[in-house]
Amino acid sequence: MSHIETSYLDFGRLEALSRGDSFLHRLDPRTKVLTTVFFVLAVISFDAYTVSALLPFLLYPAVLSGWGGLPVGYLLKRVSLVMPFALMVGLFNPLLDRDPGATLGPLELSGGWLSFASILLRVFLASSAAFILIALTGMPDIALALERMKVPRIFVVQILFVYRYIFVLTEEAVRMMRAYTLRSVHGRRPGLGIYAQIVGHLLLRTLDRARRIYLAMVSRGFDGEVHTLRTFHLGLRDVIFLVGWVSVFSLFRYQNIPAWIERMAG
């Protein structure tokens, strides 16, 4: 099985996880979307050199992964796909900002290293919260929740189509790589020139298939509105979940818990 095919099946597991039966899966999607939004806003609201105050926010993805029965190893693999972008963003910070920032035992860290660590931690927290939201809810329910929250329909449909387009693109890539492997001599990997041709044909085939899928949806009555068999109902547990986590995020935002523990221990 090719690497592309393995990655496709692995990525599809995220949708399979959303069909779980924990109490987190049964929460109203609007509750989980709002909680995730508050979490991300709280994480990105710190200044560029904050590191220790962000550490308590790791509690949120850890608790939701445990309560939802989500495989931690799989989620970490998904998050690792995003981390190289964070590395590229903050890679030169230690070289550009050499002013003293903090001391760690005998080591003196510059502001550049602090901002670099802060970027990595923020991206890790935000991406893990996003993947957990998808794993606990599923993209169709997230899209419907956004529509119920009065997000413009065209924006919701674009999010849903882009997400589905990833699967269409990957399916076509799997087919093309399988066809090339079956026709190549001794299963030899394609060279750089062949890869360029494959990418060009992949784009054309994917666009054509996406067009056919859209026409099939329109012929079946698609009018831009997201439909689902599930009915939404905000209950007491949804309110408790949202208010409880927002209160925790507020505490973490305005109280540096690690510094407070250090003062109490000292």
Q: For the largest sheet, list the strands in their spatial order.
A: 1-2
CA-atom Rg in angstroms: 22 Å
Query: How far apart are the termini?
Result: 56 Å
What are the secondary-structure elements, in order, as H or E?
Answer: HHHHHHEEHHHHHH
- Biggest sheet: strands, sense, closure? 2 strands, antiparallel
Q: How confident overall, as mean pLDDT? A: 82
SS elements, strand count: 2
Shape descriptor reads: globular
Q: Beta-sheet strand percentage?
A: under 5%
Oligomer: single chain
Amount of helix:
55-70%
**Whole-number tally of structural domains:** 1
The number of helices is 12
Low-confidence stretches: none
Q: How would you classify the helix and strand content by structural class?
A: mainly alpha
